[in-house]
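=== Structure Prediction Worksheet ===
Name of assembly: unnamed complex
Input type: mixed (protein and possibly other molecules)
Chain count: four
Listed entries:
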Amino acid sequence: MTKEAIIDQISDTYAPLSAACKEQLAGHATLLPLHKNTLLVKEGEYADSTYYIVKGCARAYYLREGKDISDWFAFEGEFISSIVSFFTQRPSPHYIELLEDCILLELSRDHIEKVSGQFHDFEHLVRIVVTQTMLRLQEKISSLQFYTARQKYENILAIRPNITQRVALTHIASYLGISLETLSRIRNPRNRI
Amino acid sequence: MTKEAIIDQISDTYAPLSAACKEQLAGHATLLPLHKNTLLVKEGEYADSTYYIVKGCARAYYLREGKDISDWFAFEGEFISSIVSFFTQRPSPHYIELLEDCILLELSRDHIEKVSGQFHDFEHLVRIVVTQTMLRLQEKISSLQFYTARQKYENILAIRPNITQRVALTHIASYLGISLETLSRIRNPRNRI
DNA sequence: CGAAAATTTGATCGAAGTCAATCATTGTGG
DNA sequence: CCACAATGATTGACTTCGATCAAATTTTCG
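=== Predicted Assembly ===
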């Protein structure tokens, strides 16, 4: 898949871009085929890029007191970055790790800002992507505040039915804010009432 | 304070706007002096406006199984709306309530979309506001996932030292995802160790 | 195949929730 | 402008969900 085809896909998914804008974007985007377990960003680093996932999946996670806590998963057609570092230019609190072999399109903040300033349609696209992310975060907050461990798990299954085939249970558990053991018990049909 | 002065303030706070853009914005914005306890939005309604708070403060809350759970507070210089309904055009899961007598500037979605399409600088401003909101939501998620009840409370005090003077403890407790009783115990100095 | 990683299962514990009963503050109608 | 009802906050007793610790079992992969 060429960079141009990927940018067409992004334009089709999120918001239409002019030919001139697509060309500008393609100019400074980098296609990255990378292996599973690659760390795109480490804690403390400055994350100056965001990544569009063409193929594969990735997660953002924290290490807190030795514990690995997943904060975000992204799959084909989505973006992933250390949002705190990318948008505030502070050191990243997150690691970003590939959960499968991936094909990514890397876009630097400088490039995004430049093209945003130049093309109204790209500024619009960025706004759309950020808005969608904001709404997903809002969803996650509702899930953390209202649901029991079991409901949280059923909720994520409703949104991503086959996540268990692609993401380790440890990561799903910490993403849901529950322990691995609790998730395991929830999944055991004997414990259903 | 005139609408024009308020829009200057928004422009100064978030991102610079051209004179022509400010004029367009002022044209369709409405200045609303409203009383404490007014509901701007009720559950189930379509929230077609966002509100810039010139003076006062407000909250978004859910009613779930008879329980009142605060989801968001906004003060002077910030925007408030039922973000889910405003951005997805679905019925609002939230109520929006004024916690003090307020002066608000109301902006409709239609108007925001129209001016965004017309003025690149306003599209940029909207992007900035949404990005800031997204980052605040991310902060809130970290707080819900990592902190004990006491840490969450200390955290919000660090961000908004005088929130307890303006917002009822019930609302703060439900916002933090803890019970009112637990918050009360945390605040009692005898229980500090 | 075997070592390491992932998951399951079991036993125990604790932070915070719930229920219930005051105590304090606020705002309104007489 | 006070009284008292309504709302908000505190305190106490008890319970529970899910965490933690520990060990066994299953899966993955070099």
